[in-house]
Structure formats: structure tokens, C-alpha cells
Amino acid sequence: MTGTLVLAGTPIGDIADAPPRLAEELAGADVIAAEDTRRLRRLTQALGVTPKGRVVSYFEGNESARTPELVEELAGGARVLLVTDAGMPSVSDPGYRLVAAAVERDVRVTAVPGPSAVLTALALSGLPVDRFCFEGFLPRKAGERLGRLREVAGERRTLVYFEAPHRLDDTLAAMAEVFGPQRRAAVCRELTKTYEEVRRGGLGELAAWAAEGVRGEITVVVEGAPEAGAEDVGPEELVRRVRVREEAGERRKEAIAAVAVEAGVPKRVVFDAVVAAKNAVE
């Protein structure tokens, strides 16, 4: 009889947010796979739990190598508990490979629901939450980051990103360039912790704020693109959108047509705006 893989959500800040079942699973698991064994030790001490099972590390550096070992434990009937540093395993954290391998071997996979930075930030953002998509971390290189943002420039669902504090200003500036400086967003910092802060505003405004330096764990929530005809788009914004598409590899004719549909205006209006901007430069 095969065992069970348990994905356990852990607090993203306040230890009091730990679900009651987390302590039970930590105490009873045969194997605990932890992203950081030192953090796991602090967590168990805070919860007053003494694990009976074997504790092994399971992080990005050894995930591929350790997954087969854990799958064999599961195949042998063990109850394996997977915990990451904060939040839900496999959501921008180790776990996906193990879940996929366990499913492949017909091993039962279940979860201990817990805190989530994605959902917490969405709820606090003040932006639409009926439809959203999680984009994780953006690439570190500027060119790749811009390319990834251009891919979702027309996405109408609310976007959620994780970001490192030392890259936040560059990321917000890139978002302002691609999405427009007036696109609404919320920067959620240190969620559920002592210095929790939610800063809301346009992307341009938030980029200027972040340039002064920001610390802590960061989640960024960005409003989706407006529906066609839902806004009055001025000539400068039309030109900016065409430029973004051209930089992404579109021919000018196709870029103008796409922006016209997106903004709900005739193609001639976009064309005239682009020509006027070109003449102004010359």
C-alpha cells in the first residue's frame, strides 16, 4: 500500500496563522522534506512540536536529485510532509517535481491549506479579484523582463508577481513602460508581519517611490488591461502602445491595427498619432 504526500502551507509572517493541522502533520509524518531545515526547527519550536520522523532538506539545488528518493519512500507506504519557507509548496517554491512524480506513481497527494501571499495580496490590493493570473518572479535581466511583460500587456485579468526588494524599482519602472504609468497597482510588503505595508497607486508613482529603496518580502498586484472602448486613450498613449508592440517584434502595420482594437478607436486615429509623433521628433 502506497503512502501519502502532504503539501503543508506554512505562515508567511505571523506564526499564529499556522493551521491546527500543521502541528499534527509535523508531529506524525514519517519524513519531513523542508526547504530550509533551520527554519523548520524554528517553526516546530514555535508550535511546540517534536517531529518523530526523519527530516531531510528539499530545495531548488537538490530538488531533482532528492525527488526519486522521496517517491520511493512514498511507494513504500511513508507519509511524507513537504514544507517550504513560507506559503504553499510548489507555488514559486519547491514541490512541483515531487507532486508530478507522486501522481505518476499513483501516490495519494493531499494538502494542509495555509496562508498564501498571492491571495492575501490580492485581497488587500483593492483591485479586481474575480479573475487573476499569477506570474511568479520576472526574469532578472532587463531585456528578458521587458519581453515577459510585453507578452501580457493586453491581459485583462489582474496580474500578481513576486519580486525581490532590490529589484522592485527596476521592475515597477519596466511595468510603467510597458503597461503605462497610470495603470493601477499595489505593492504589498511584509504581509502579516510587524511592518506590513500596502502601497497603492499608478505604476509610475510606485516606481518613483520604490527608487528610494524598499525592504522585505514583496508581492506586486497589477490591474489588468482595460477592455476595448473602456477608456479614453490619448495620442501619446496610443504611440506608446504601438512602440511597445514594435519592440516586441510586431510590424508597425500590425501593431497599429492591434492597438486600435485594444483601445476601441479607428486605425486611422492610431496611424495619425504615430505619424504626428514621428514628425515632432524630426
From TrEMBL:
Main location: cytoplasm
Class of this enzyme: transferase
Catalysed reaction, written as an equation: cytidine(1402) in 16S rRNA + S-adenosyl-L-methionine = 2'-O-methylcytidine(1402) in 16S rRNA + S-adenosyl-L-homocysteine + H(+)
Enzyme Commission number: 2.1.1.198
Pfam families: TP_methylase (PF00590)
Gene3D superfamilies in the cross-refs: Cobalt-precorrin-4 Transmethylase, Domain 1, Methyltransferase, Cobalt-precorrin-4 Transmethylase, Domain 2
Keyword Cytoplasm: yes
Highest taxon of the lineage: Bacteria
Keywords, alphabetical: Cytoplasm, Methyltransferase, rRNA processing, S-adenosyl-L-methionine, Transferase
InterPro entries per the UniProt record, alphabetical: 4pyrrol_Mease, 4pyrrol_Methylase_sf, 4pyrrole_Mease_sub1, 4pyrrole_Mease_sub2, rRNA_ssu_MeTfrase_I
Ranges for domain Tetrapyrrole methylase: 4-207
Subcellular location: Cytoplasm
Recorded family membership: Belongs to the methyltransferase superfamily. RsmI family.
PANTHER family linked: RIBOSOMAL RNA SMALL SUBUNIT METHYLTRANSFERASE I (PTHR46111)
Function as written in the Swiss-Prot or TrEMBL entry: Catalyzes the 2'-O-methylation of the ribose of cytidine 1402 (C1402) in 16S rRNA.
Protein name per UniProt: Ribosomal RNA small subunit methyltransferase I
Species annotation: Streptomyces levis
Lineage: Bacteria, Bacillati, Actinomycetota, Actinomycetes, Kitasatosporales
